Amino acid sequence: MVSRPVQAGVGLLTGVVVFASSLGGLFALTFAFVHGRFGDSGPRVTAAFIAIAGFVSVGLVPFLKYPANPPAVGDPSTLGMRTSLYFAMIAISLAAMIGTALLQRHLSSRMSVWNASVVAALGYIVVMIVVAVGLPGVNEVPEQFPAVVLWQFRLSSIGAQLLMWTTIGLLFGLLTERAAETGMRRAPLRTSTV
């Protein structure tokens, strides 16, 4: 239905823009919920932590278990199963990351923030190792497929995720901080005397 040149050009651009815009909206909602709840961090620091946690839980960890494959590689009859496993890995990883943040916040009242963060991060790692071992593997790349092409595709895939999360985190933090500073400078002008 859609030619390869369209898929590789306009189709790819459209897909990336729609995906990044959706992710940016979810990022903004997460920021609105998290900002001010986990310490006195400013907008840039909060946005950076959300971006790092998002990249690790949504991009990197699922990628380590189910790395991306080039188009048309793999058995078409298992596409539904592979997609379900990948999204299950994302959902579990995201839930574990949220649990990690809550655990870190709880432990911070009993120990230093650094120690609480290390314990919570180790908890996330242990949970995700257990999940990765428990979920079935998917190895459908044909033996004759060029390893260099597979490696370059996978590297490009995770690199695009890293670039997207970094851009969203840095730009969102910068723009939110500027908006907050502008709002504070304008705040005295809005006060009225009665």
Strand and helix map with partners:
Layout lengths: L3 H31 L8 H23 L13 H29 L5 H22 L12 H44 L4
Helix pairs in contact: 1-2, 1-5, 2-3, 2-5, 3-4
**In percent, how helical is the residue content?**
over 70%
> Can you count the beta strands?
0
pLDDT below 50 for ≥5 consecutive residues: which ranges?
none
**In what range is the share of β-strand residues?**
under 5%
N to C succession of SSEs = HHHHH
Radius of gyration: 21 Å
The number of helices is 5
- Assign the structural class, choosing from mainly alpha, mainly beta, alpha/beta, alpha+beta, or little secondary structure: mainly alpha
Largest sheet: number of strands, sense, barrel closure: none
Transmembrane segments: 12-33, 45-64, 84-103, 115-138, 158-176
Pfam family, one: CbtA
Organism: Hansschlegelia plantiphila
Protein name: CbtA family protein
What is shown here, in short?
Keywords: Membrane, Transmembrane, Transmembrane helix. The chain is mostly helical and 194 residues long. It is 77% helix and 0% strand.
Can you describe what's shown?
There is one protein chain. This protein is mainly alpha-helical. It is built from five helices and no strands. It has helices at residues 4-34, 43-65, 79-107, 113-134, 147-190. Helices cover 77% and strands 0% of the residues. The model has no long low-confidence stretch (mean pLDDT 86). Among the domains are: 77-140; 141-175. Helix 1 packs across helix 2 and helix 2 packs antiparallel against helix 5.
